Amino acid sequence: MTNSQPPLPQPELERAGITFEQYEEFTPEKLELWDGYLGYGGQNQLGFHLAVLRNMGLLTAVNHTQLSLWIEALDRHIREKLETISAQPEVAETMLNRLNRAMEDLAAVAEYLEG
Fold this sequence. Notes:
The protein is mostly helical.
């Protein structure tokens, strides 16, 4: 482990590599299964998970997961971000309405494709 931590790997649409420093810092020395989760003794696994997603590419990941789960994840994440933004009430309501319409449309397309 180095004195200064390398930046967290950032997943991209297509598969991409990580640096040796990121590998050294974020890959567990011993990968174990704890209560159904990959990891090592309570160690923070964020860097490891991001490295795996970067190596895999988000397009590959989404191809092996139900679209409705990705839409639900985006919906939750965007709603949480909207709650933290201090905007005028009218602006916040407009953004929430737009999000609701967009999520309904995405859900309908995903249901059609998964059906």
